[in-house]
Structure formats: structure tokens, C-alpha cells
Specification:
The chain is mostly helical. The longest helix is centred in the N-terminal third of the chain and has 18 residues, at 122-139. It is flat and about 95 Å long. The two termini are 47 Å apart. The model is unreliable at 1-12, 113-118 and 858-862 (pLDDT under 50).
């Protein structure tokens, strides 16, 4: 479960196990007797117990502890005290011990140990081992590591349990790891225990992507599904596929694939199979082939077999559980192991038997017939295609794509095969698998000469490339389709143009916008007014607002006539880019409702990220954070890199604005690791903005200015690096410039932007420019610009930006001894910052209000943010910063930063006062 080294102080290089690593750290810290000195680590095979034991050894060495290790072995489980001998070998023979203890050790572990075995005194041996460890620990504190304890001999387990109950007062700690169903009886209840569960979906995706040959497309989704969060499976399954071993897509009755196992996984999940009786293996094969296995189906499929009796040995071995009329396999990989242990003939016969038993369930029957097919079969292909249509009607886009892909393979007619593959690609797009879409659409061209089918396949392939940050390749396909079909199929051309517009925007390259503009002029008619509005807005969202607003109105009229997903998506983007932010939130929210009803995940990720951005700009930061988190995990699973990076950058920006610059920097760096930002200028400037605001929040105004300055070129006449996104950072750039002594340089940027924005910027952009000009103006003319930034009621749609202007103007007025005029502006700013939990700006506004003569109430505990309250409560329980960091997936430094802010809010000066302060707050 290692993912390699990392730059983050809170990321230990083991994905998804921060809480467990925190518990291990606390165990190591307890070597001084400050806490429990024994920890039992359990989990199913492959969850990473040995990896954590190894990491404990590394950390123990770093802390100067002596390490004693033993790993249980099935082959030595019958050898008395073999485990203790392995553990204690570095300390034997214990020459410094009293004679009685040394003799007991010699009888157990000396050269003639076998002769003494019948006469061993267990208590004397335990006391001797305790003495040996005590003597060693007096020289150097000890860490005892026991791995695979389920295979230790009983004598060793008894001695270990004796030791574990007597470590108090000795500088010794014990970490024991065992399989969940094999924890030695002496350790199953008496000591603190943590269980390693499956990795979260995000951590599983990250671990999979960290492998040398990370899978893409549908295979990636299948591995994530079958591994079920098991770290070893996430590592081993890609290796099996990389070696050319293939699975069976048709197994399981519902289209679920079974993946090939490596020998290592077979040893874990299929070790019991060969010893099972033949009827049991036959019944297990039916279970594996059936997918969702009902006893009634199995009994009908094998009338000659007593299925219930046959499954009994498998249930006793822990491979299956029979309950409530169904048969559940212990883990998805047990299914793969059983299925691939059988020959093709045996698997085919199982599928045919199940198909015969499922005459009343056409979907499952079609899949079993497909799994049993030995070549192309039109009837089975038709049955699968019909099953796909039913799945799509239920919102099961992934199931539909899988069924159509298999149907295409079984279809003899080339054109029909191509159409089914194209429909599969469309379903895969809605299911959220861009790499799979690319694979499917890329195969269409080789099956047909039909120009329409080839064009539609190129459109889907271009979408997939754009979502995965391959904008140049995407635009070659998409703009080519748009130009080629401009006259013959204007509706298709506008669809390609609208899809291309997204990559054009993200790329930010001038030449792509020029090409989008040229091809747009070739397409006549109003087949897709919403798509055209989006494309035109992307070409130039800043100028000619009346022209763009007219096209937006036409698109909205089309939406009123037909609320299609395409119209909603295009107009959500159009309203956002034209600074109709409140309307964008409504349309994108409506789009999400439609997508959720349709069970679509693919465009969910991109739309959810767009909604998160609109919510952020609209001042709904909590909702924006939730949407960004949702977009991030969906994109991580789907391999939608554009969304993964973008959602990470939005989260980083929120961390910065809420006063956690360390986490913001780490999040921003993690988001763009391995990404060439030169090919995606929108992400490049958003990355710079996140880092700039993190530096601003930390008080490093020089670095803040350098980061924000990088959103504009260094030319004699500076230009935005991204033609649209950079413009909104001008106000923050000016604020950093004033504090960093770089006003002259920033003024050249503001002058260039002012010249370019004429004649009709949006109210939002006009306010941003007025704020920047006011900050950079040395004369009293600044007041006119401040008032211009604040007077337009339309700017209420962007509360944080307006609050910044209020704060800047209030500071400007106070410094000119106009405190009475300053106070309303500062109070308005403070109210907004408190609502958004923008801590650095809250503190600034509070200080300015005090300086302006306003009475400000001291902060109360009720003003703690949810995260601050959680940290305060954990610290009040006695947890260290490192403990809290592990529990909340933060860095210890970030926890310290929050506590530094918590103390003055609660009116305390020491950690010991936290409990009383929180209790008082609770009473209030």
C-alpha cells in the first residue's frame, strides 16, 4: 500500500492509513509509560498489516528504539516456542540474568532445548523472558513487533500474553498484527485493538494510480470494484494484467468481470480451494458464475447436486456465507479465484446451466449466454443490446456500456457492430469513464466507413481527451468534426463545437480561440442555440456583452422549450463565464438534479466542479467545499484529471481564505503534481491564485505578489496568462503589491487591463478593476474608484470580493482620519468575513474597526469553526498535536496553527484550560 515518497508533512507515504499510523505513533510514544503499551492490529488478508508493521519498525529506529521482530509461519506453527526463539534470538543467551532465569531460557532455546521440553516450567520460562527483555530495555527502550500472529505456535502466544500484561513500568511496547479471524485468544479482548478496513474510494484510486502500469478506462473501474479497497489487490491486479493475463468480462450474470489473480493473491484468497470436495468446487463455480447468487437459482441450475450440503465445507472454510436465501462470497477476489481455477469447459457449462434456470430473467440470461458463446452470435447480441436499453432506462449507464460492448463483439454485421460500440461509448461517458470512452470510440473507425458514425465517435473521443487534460489532441478531433460537418450536419457540428469550447477555455491558447471563432462562422442555422451561446462566450467572454447576452437569451429560450442535459450543461457554463453567477448556480444545480436522476457519474464530475466554482464565487463556501469534495472523488475514480486538479485547487483556495495556509499550499502542490500546467492555462492561473492567497493569509506579501503576478505576463504591456480567469485576480494582486512595495509594477498590469476591458465589462469585472485602481492610486482619486467598486448593487452577487473592497476602503478612510465614515464599511466587511469564516480577513477587519473607534465584542467559543471545535475537543481530551493530526488527516503543524487561533477565542492561554473553557461555552 506504499505510494512512494511525498512532499507533504502529513502524508507518510502510505495511502489511506493516517489514523492507524497515528495510533502506532502513540504506541511508540508510550514507551515512557504515558499510555497503553500494547496495540493489536487486525484486518483481512492484504489490508496492509505487514506494511504498517514495517513502518512501525522504521519509526521506532528513528526514535532510537531497539527492534525485536517475529513473523508467524504456518510451517512452524507446530514447533513449540519457535516464535519466541525468533523474537528473542538477538538477546540470547542472556548471560547477565540470574542463574535461574538463564537456565530457564537455556532449557527453552539452548542447543539441547529438545531434551528439556517435557520438563519446561512455563512460569519460569515466562519470568526468564521478562527478565531478558527488562535487562535489554534498561540499555535501550524496546519495540516488539509480532506479524502474522495467527500462525504463531501456542507456546509463544502464551509467553507473549504474559509479557503484554507486565509491560507497565518497563520501557517496552508491543505491536501485534493478525488476521481478523485469527487473533490469538489471549489478545482478542484484553488490549487496545484497531482493525484495518478497506481503503476509501479516493485512497484506493490514488494507490491504483501510483502503480508502475496504472490501468485506464474500464479496467480501472473493474479493479477498483473487485479489489474492494484491499491494498494488496490494488497492487497485484494491475501486475497480473500488465503480464498479459486477462479476465472474463462475461462472468457473473450481470456483466461483472472476473480479473486474473497473481500467485500472491491466489495464496491469500484461494488457498483452501484444492482441498475442497469436488461437489463443493462445482457448487462454488456456480456461485462465482452467477454473480448475485440465490439458492433457488443454484438449485434449479444443478438439480443433480445437493447444493446446500455441497456448500457446507466452503462455508466452514470461510469462503462463503449462506443466509437469507442467498450465497455471499467472503470477498470479490474469492469469486475471481474460484472462477479462474476452473477450465473454460467447466465455466461454459456453469453459464449454460444458469441460463437455462433463468428463463424468467432476460437480462441475467443474456449475460450467461454471452459468457458461454464461442463466437459471434446475432441472437445473443440482440438479447444483450435489449438488456442494455433496459439498463439505460434505469440509469445503469455502466451496465449498459458493458452490455453493448459485449453485444458489439458478438454482432456479425459490421455497421451494426460499429453503432453498438458507439452507443456503448455514449453510455460510458454518462457512467463517468473517459478512458473507457476513448477506447470504445477509437475502435469505431476501424469497423465502418459511415462518415456520420465516424464523426460521432470522434466527438466522443475528443470529449474523453479533454476531460483527461489532453486538450491539444481533443481539439484536433473536435474541431475537425465541426468543420467537416458544418454544412452537412450543422447540429452535429455545433455539438462538436460546444464540446471543443470546453477544451479551448481550459487550454487558454489564443490560436484555439481563433480557430473556434473561424469554424463557428461556417455553421449556419440555430440547431443548437445553447451550444452556440457557450462556444461564442468562450471565444471572447469579456467584450461585446450585448452580443453575447442576446445569444444567451436565445439559449435560455431553447432551454425553456426543452430541458435537455446538453442545454443545461452548455447554459450553466455560459452563465458562469458571463458573470451571471446566481443564474449559473440555479442552472448547474438543476443540471445536477437531472444527472442524479439519470444515474450519470461521468458528466457529474465536470458539472459538479463547475457548480462548486459558481457556489464559491457566490459566497456559498460550505456548499462549494462539499461540491468540490464530491467532484474530486468522482473524478479520481473516473480518471477525469481536469476535474481532479481543478477540485483540488478550489479546496486549496478555500483552505487559504479560511486561514490555513500550510494545508492550502500542500493541497495546491498535490493537486498539480505530474501535470504540465503550460497546456492548461486556466489551471495554471488558479494554481498561482491558490498559492498567492495562502501566502497572503500567512503574511508573506512578497511571495503573495510574486504568485499573483504570475497570472499575468511579464511583457512590456502585461497580458493575462489566461484570457479570462486571470482578470479576476487583479484586485488581490493590487492588495499584495501595496503591502510588498510593488505598486509601480502592479500599476502597469492594471493599466493594461483597463485599456483592454473597454468599453463594456461585466459589473463584476468593473468592480475588480476599480478596486485594483483605487489600491494603486496615490491621490484622493482613489475614493472615486472605491465608491465605483461598491455602488453597483449587482456586485452583491460576489460577497467576498465586495467585502474586500469594503475593507480596503474602510482602511483608506481611517488612515485619512475619517473614522466615522470608515466604520460602516469595516462593519460590512467584518460581517461577511465572519459568515464565510475567512479568518485572516476577519482579524484584519476587527483590528481596523477597533482602530476606527468601534467597540468590538471579544470572540466567544461559539465562533469556533467546526474544524476548530473538533481540534479543541480532541486537545481537551489530552491528545497531542500529532494524535489530532492523524485523526483528522491534517499535519501537526496545521493543528498547531489552529490551536494558536483557538486559545485567544476561548480567552485561555494554556492547553490545560481547554476542557473548562469548552464546558463553560456548552452551558452558555
Amino acid at each position: 500500500m506504499h505510494a512512494g515518497t511525498t512532499d507533504h508533512p502529513f502524508d507518510p507515504g502510505i495511502l489511506g492509513r493516517a489514523a492507524e499510523l497515528g495510533r502506532i505513533d502513540r504506541l511508540l510514544g508510550a514507551v515512557d509509560g504515558s499510555g497503553p503499551q500494547v496495540l493489536v492490529l487486525t484486518g483481512e488478508p492484504g489490508t496492509g498489516k505487514s506494511t504498517l508493521v514495517d513502518r512501525a519498525a522504521e519509526r521506532g529506529r528513528e526514535q532510537g528504539l531497539g527492534i525485536l521482530r517475529v513473523r508467524g509461519s504456518e510451517g512452524e506453527a507446530g514447533l513449540g516456542l519457535s516464535g519466541m526463539h525468533q523474537l528473542l534470538h538477538p538477546l540470547l543467551p542472556g548471560t547477565g540474568l540470574p542463574a535461574g532465569q538463564r537456565e530457564a531460557l537455556d532449557r527453552a532455546f539452548g542447543p539441547q532445548a529438545a531434551e528439556y521440553e517435557p520438563r519446561l516450567d512455563q512460569l519460569s520460562l515466562c519470568v526468564g523472558v521478562l527478565g531478558l527483555l527488562t535487562e535489554a530495555a534498561a540499555r535501550r527502550p524496546l519495540l516488539l513487533l509480532v506479524d502474522d500472529a495467527q500462525w504463531l505456535d501456542l507456546g509463544s502466544v502464551d509467553v507473549l500474553a504474559f509479557l503484554a500484561r507486565r509491560l507497565e513500568g518497563r520501557p517496552v511496547v508491543l505491536l501485534l498484527a493478525a488476521r481478523e479471524d485469527g487473533v490469538p485468544a489471549r489478545f482478542d479482548r484484553a488490549f487496545p485493538q484497531i482493525t484495518l478496513g478497506p481503503l476509501s474510494r479516493t485512497a484506493a484510486g490514488q494507490l491504483l494510480d501510483a502503480q508502475p502500469d496504472p490501468p485506464r478506462g474500464k479496467t480501472r473501474a473493474e479493479i477498483l470494484q473487485q479489489a474492494a479497497g484491499n491494498p494488496l489487490a490494488l497492487i497485484e491486479l494491475p501486475r497480473a494484467l500488465a503480464r498479459g493475463r486477462t479476465g472474463d468480462m462475461g462472468a457473473g450474470g450481470a456483466g461483472g468481470a472476473t480479473l486474473p489473480l497473481t500467485a500472491r493473491l491466489e495464496n491469500l484468497f484461494a488457498a483452501d480451494l484444492p482441498a475442497l470436495p469436488a461437489p463443493t468446487r462445482a457448487a462454488l463455480l456456480l456461485v462465482a458464475a452467477a454473480g448475485p447468487a440465490r439458492l433457488t437459482d443454484l438449485i434449479r441450475a444443478a438439480p443433480e447436486l445437493d447444493v446446500v450440503a455441497a456448500l457446507d465445507p466452503a462455508e466452514r472454510a470461510g469462503l462463503v456465507r449462506v443466509a437469507d436465501g442467498g450465497v455471499l462470497l467472503r470477498h470479490p477476489l474469492v469469486r475471481s479465484a474460484v472462477y479462474h481455477a476452473a477450465s473454460f469447459h467447466e465455466r461454459r457449462q456453469a453459464h449454460l446451466a444458469l441460463a437455462a434456470a433463468l428463463t424468467g430473467e432476460p437480462d441475467r440470461r443474456a449475460w450467461h449466454l454471452a459468457a458461454a458463446a464461442t463466437g459471434q452470435d446475432a441472437a445473443v447480441a440482440d438479447a444483450l443490446a435489449e438488456s442494455a436499453e433496459r439498463a439505460r432506462g434505469r440509469g445503469g449507464h455502466a451496465a449498459a456500456a458493458t452490455a453493448l460492448e459485449r453485444a458489439a463483439e458478438l454482432t456479425p454485421a459490421p455497421d451494426l457492430r460499429a453503432r453498438r460500440l458507439l452507443t456503448a461509448a455514449q453510455a460510458a461517458m454518462f457512467a463517468g469513464h473517459p478512458q473507457w470512452v476513448g477506447e470504445l470510440s477509437g475502435r469505431v473507425g476501424g469497423m465502418t466507413e459511415d462518415p456520420r458514425l465516424r464523426a460521432e465517435a470522434s466527438l466522443l473521443g475528443g470529449w474523453a481527451l479533454g476531460v483527461t487534460l489532453r486538450h491539444e489532441e481533443a481539439l484536433v478531433l473536435l474541431l475537425g468534426v465541426a468543420e467537416a460537418t458544418a454544412a452537412s450536419a450543422p447540429g452535429l457540428a455545433l455539438g462538436a463545437l460546444s464540446t471543443a469550447a470546453t477544451s479551448v477555455y481550459n487550454s487558454g491558447a489564443r490560436r484555439h480561440r481563433a480557430e473556434l471563432d473561424r469554424i463557428s462562422g461556417l455553421i449556419e442555422g440555430d440547431a443548437d442555440p445553447a451550444g452556440r451561446a457557450w462556444a461564442l462566450a468562450v471565444i471572447d467572454p469579456v467584450h461585446e456583452r450585448p452580443f453575447l447576452t442576446r445569444h444567451l437569451a436565445e439559449g435560455l429560450a431553447a432551454l425553456a422549450r426543452e430541458e435537455s442535459l446538453g442545454n443545461l450543461t452548455a447554459l450553466g457554463g455560459t452563465t458562469w463565464i458571463l458573470d451571471e453567477t446566481e443564474q449559473a448556480v440555479r442552472i448547474l444545480g438543476r443540471t445536477m438534479d437531472v444527472l442524479r436522476r439519470a444515474g450519470s457519474a461521468g458528466t457529474n464530475a465536470t458539472v459538479t466542479q463547475a457548480l462548486a466554482l459558481a457556489l464559491f464565487e457566490n459566497g456559498s463556501w460550505t456548499a462549494a467545499e462539499e461540491a468540490a469534495h464530491e467532484a474530486f472523488w468522482m473524478a479520481t475514480e473516473a480518471g477525469a484529471d481536469n476535474v481532479t486538479v481543478g477540485a483540488g485547487l478550489l479546496r486549496a483556495t478555500l483552505y487559504a481564505l479560511r486561514g490555513d495556509p500550510a494545508t492550502a499550499r500542500a493541497e495546491a502542490l498535490r493537486a498539480v503534481r505530474g501535470v504540465d500546467l503550460r497546456r492548461s492555462l486556466s489551471l495554471q492561473v488558479r494554481h498561482r491564485h491558490a498559492l498567492g492567497m495562502a501566502a497572503f493569509a500567512a503574511g508573506d506579501h512578497a511571495d503573495a505578489y510574486e504568485q499573483l503576478r504570475a497570472t499575468f505576463t511579464r511583457d512590456f504591456r502585461p497580458a493575462p496568462v489566461h484570457y479570462h480567469a486571470s482578470l479576476y485576480y487583479l484586485g488581490d494582486l493590487a492588495a499584495a503589491a501595496v503591502r510588498a512595495g510593488r505598486a509601480d509594477d502592479a500599476r502597469t498590469v492594471a493599466d493594461a487591463v483597463r485599456h483592454d476591458l473597454k468599453p463594456d465589462p461585466s459589473p463584476r469585472l468593473a468592480a475588480v478593476l476599480h478596486r485594483a485602481t483605487a489600491l494603486l492610486t496615490d491621490t484622493d482619486d482613489a475614493e472615486r474608484h472605491f465608491r465605483a467598486a461598491l455602488d453597483d448593487p449587482a456586485t452583491d452577487c460576489w460577497p467576498f470580493e465586495k467585502a474586500l473592497a469594503h475593507l480596503d476602503f474602510g482602511e483608506w478612510l481611517r488612515r485619512r482620519r475619517r473614522s466615522a465614515e470608515a466604520r460602516p464599511h469595516l462593519a460590512a466587511a467584518l460581517e461577511c468575513f465572519q459568515r464565510l469564516d475567512a479568518r485572516p480577513w476577519t482579524e484584519r477587519a476587527t483590528a481596523e474597526l477597533r482602530a476606527a473607534g468601534a467597540a468590538t465584542a471579544p470572540a466567544a467559543a461559539g465562533e469556533l469553526t467546526p474544524q476548530e471545535r473538533q481540534i479543541a475537543e480532541l486537545a481537551a481530551q489530552g491528545l497531542t498535536n500529532r494524535d489530532i493530526a492523524a485523526r483528522l488527516y491534517l499535519s501537526p503543524r496545521t493543528v498547531g496553527y489552529h490551536l494558536h487561533k483557538i486559545f485567544p477565542k476561548l480567552g485561555i492561554t494554556a492547553r490545560a484550560q481547554l476542557r473548562d473553557a469548552l464546558t463553560e461555552e456548552g452551558r452558555g
